[in-house]
């Protein structure tokens, strides 16, 4: 199981990598925000409450991908603009989360931050997942990188998400925390970058 010293080292690694990456990504992020603002006809960054480490709520930041006035339902992007769908497929809409990592709400690697009603309802041994900060990428994120397409094929996406995908993600994320190593984080980061 992940130790306090591993959590501290994980945090140091996150900060160092983000500090090194942000100067290179700052202008591209600004350009994507500008494009999203024009494309969606509203401010190109949006925030949403998510469940973080120890069940604490925080605001996650993403580049907006939905048309003005639309809301995401059931994990689907039916109302995403053409550019928005590209940003989601490429995961470029998640670049502002580097700020979440920098301020300590998130980690580069960990369970994806869930909406209230999922991670905050964990009980028993499954609550071990809340020991770590949610991540931009992680083992469950990599397995379900095409989650939206999978949900789009279901008659009842919300039910399928809760009964099948969420249950599997809990098992994957629990295993990640129980068998944590810095080497594992490096492998997961590389897998995420190679896929992109």
Which SSEs are present, and which pair or pack?
Blueprint: H1 4-40, E1 45-51, E2 57-63, H2 82-90, H3 97-103, E3 107-109, E4 135-137, H4 139-143, H5 147-152, H6 157-178, H7 182-195
Parallel strand pairs: 3-4
Antiparallel strand pairs: 1-2
Helix pairs in contact: 1-3
InterPro entries: Bact_transf
Pfam families: Bac_transf (PF02397)
Keywords: Membrane, Transferase, Transmembrane, Transmembrane helix
Explain how this protein is built:
It is a single chain. By secondary structure, the chain is mainly alpha-helical. The chain has helices at 4-40, 82-90, 97-103, 139-143, 147-152, 157-178, 182-195, and strands spanning 45-51, 57-63, 107-109, 135-137. The chain is globular and about 45 Å long. Helices cover 51% and strands 10% of the residues. The strands form two sheets. The chain has a two-stranded antiparallel sheet with strand order 1-2. It has a two-stranded parallel sheet with strand order 3-4. It has one domain (4-195). Helix 1 (4-40) packs antiparallel against helix 3.
